[in-house]
# Entry
Amino acid sequence: MSVTVQFCGAARTVTGSCYLVQTPSGRFLIDCGLFQGQKTLKELNYHAFPFRPADIDIVLLTHAHIDHSGLLPKLVREGFRGRILATRGTIDLCSYMLPDAGSIQESEVVALNRRNAARGRSEVNPIYTQADAIASLQSFQPLDYETWADVIPGVRARYWNAGHLLGSASIEIEVDGEGSASHPLRLLASGDIGPDSKLLEPDPTAPAGFDYVISEATYGDRIRAATTPEARRQRLASEVRDAAAAKGALLIPAFAVERTQELIVDLVDLMERGQVPAAPIFLDSPLAIHATEVFRKHAASFDGNIDVNRLFNSPHLRFTETVDESKSIAKLTGFHIIIAASGMCDAGRIRHHLKHWLWSERATVLLVGYQAHGTLGRFLQEGAKSVRIQGDEIKVAARIRMIDEYSGHADGSEIARWIAARRPIQRGVFLVHGEETAIAGLAERLAERIIATAKLFQPVLDDIYELSTPAPALLDVARRRRLTPEAVTHLDWHNDMSKLVLDINDQIEAAADDRARGVIIRRLRRALEGSG
Ligand SMILES: [Zn+2]
# Structure
């Protein structure tokens, strides 16, 4: 008998969580996420899955974030006919997030096809449409935390609160008779794990005693100073006061779901207590507005001390749903706050606001979450002097600030503690869902002290491991990999190209006069001709 797992996503440096588990009685997926970040990765979303969707019996979904759920509509469109098991919170969030993702796919393709037409290339179709996303919602089936659910014959699963997002779960799985001495094979998929002291969520929990744990490592190499909700609010207060003193807009690129609601709760609370200057807070994201409604509906599941409903009704808060309302914010001049998606600035309305304000010394951009390689947010975080937005080069004069404390992810020591609490872990721990340095950092933290080094594994994309042997065995991957490990471990050429263009512009502008600029341009041209 044999049980295997294939890392179809969220392997080393690769985003987009997706694991294919095969047992003697069938096949199921844990998550089916969209690849995000570098262009090379995003192109995978257009490729075929490394399995036949019709062959998958069921999906276990850890949480609603698009890098975990975002390819479900494609899976259903391409023939998957089973159920998608998720908590009620996850289903309510997905009912807005997946259609939103579908409409983003449609509009990205419109822009891409316009460029392709100009270059005489053929049209591409969206990965899936909003209609596909809405259709996929029919497949969802709710389950409760901490209650066993049947998955396929001989396999059952139980969801535990991962404290990362409304509805988020770590998933405990048992496969009958496949463990040692005919015991069940016990597997735990972490999903994304929340930090301690998160504003609206409990600390993550799960049982102990497994054959295997698959653990995320997003912040595996980072340690944040311990914080409390009040200390975090005061950090935010000081950033807001500085932004108000600069007398321009405070732009907060935020993930529409949960991060945005946490910020609203804290900002309104600070204004009500008079700790920051009162100003309008624009929630400029239809998805964030819908997500806020889902949070209202689930208000009872949050920390009892926070009156989410009262704070969400604050007169300071303005919801801008239509494009016209969104554009009218651009007319404002003095201090005001705009929260808009996306959190990494690579899509959404935040790009319009950045285009409008980045050149101004009066503006502040406050990054409150993880910025993946290759995203506009990452370029800003790394101090780019100018950036390209919608084809235009924009100088960066705004103050770029960063708050780490709102992270939805456990840091290295919190993940290590979470893994330690799952022991004994008999056969292996797979470290996934992180950049190379994050996974290496977590491995170093765990090695020997918490888990024997020989039991730590760092799979790369499309690796398949046999799990029913006493130690996991990497199966020969004769089949074609979608990407070579090298292609994903290095920044891809798209990023190098963007940086080069920015550097050339910098050099040319910094040159003493037009003659010096001409010299630089002629040298570059000679270099280009030389390399041909
Ligand atoms: Zn997540």
